[in-house]
Amino acid sequence: MPVLNIARLGHPILREIAKPVDLKALTEPGHNELQRLIDDMIDTMREEGGVGIAAPQVARSLQIIIVEYQQNERYPSQEDIPLTVYVNPVITHTSKETTSFWEGCLSLKDLRGLVTRPREVTVKAFSREGKKMVVEAKGFLAVVLQHEIDHLLGKVFLDRMTDLTQLAWAEEWETYWTEKEPTQSPEAI
Ligand code: ZN
Hints:
Structural class: alpha+beta
Number of helices: 5
CATH superfamily: Peptide deformylase
Bound molecules: zinc ion
CATH class: Alpha Beta
Strand content: 25-35%
Number of strands: 8
Strand order of the largest sheet: 1-2-3-6-7
Largest sheet: 5 strands, antiparallel
Shape: globular
Number of domains: 1
Radius of gyration: 16 Å
Distance between the termini: 22 Å
Order of helices and strands: HHEEEEEEEHHEH
């Protein structure tokens, strides 16, 4: 499967509202174009070391996000996230309680920023097979889902930051911030 090019900040597609996926086209028998795109997005996310990816990040204006995380020694505190494809995802509930997390992004690869978001969210979406799903997420998964769904709304994590002094290059962040902060960031969401 080909690995796709990542659209980086400045590419106009990252600022567009992504188009809804036609579920009929998604579930068309055979290895259709949308299913191929999903496979390529999975390969691209894994190749780039991301915890999630949204279709606009591979320059496709479609409401598809994919998340996956397997615990590694570097970030042992985060729970695993099984590979999941969300088509036309919508956040239907957010908790009042918030959590702050150092985020990265494949489209802003070397930056890390502290972002405060609701701690828990409920997401309604469709699977890649076109089946309805409702996911209640908290903690790390809730952060990743909100970050990826933001990409479908033309937003990046910088837009969610309230204090830009909490923005750093990854290398400096590792040098100066990791011991001060109890929360740790994945490579890139
Ligand atoms: Zn991102």
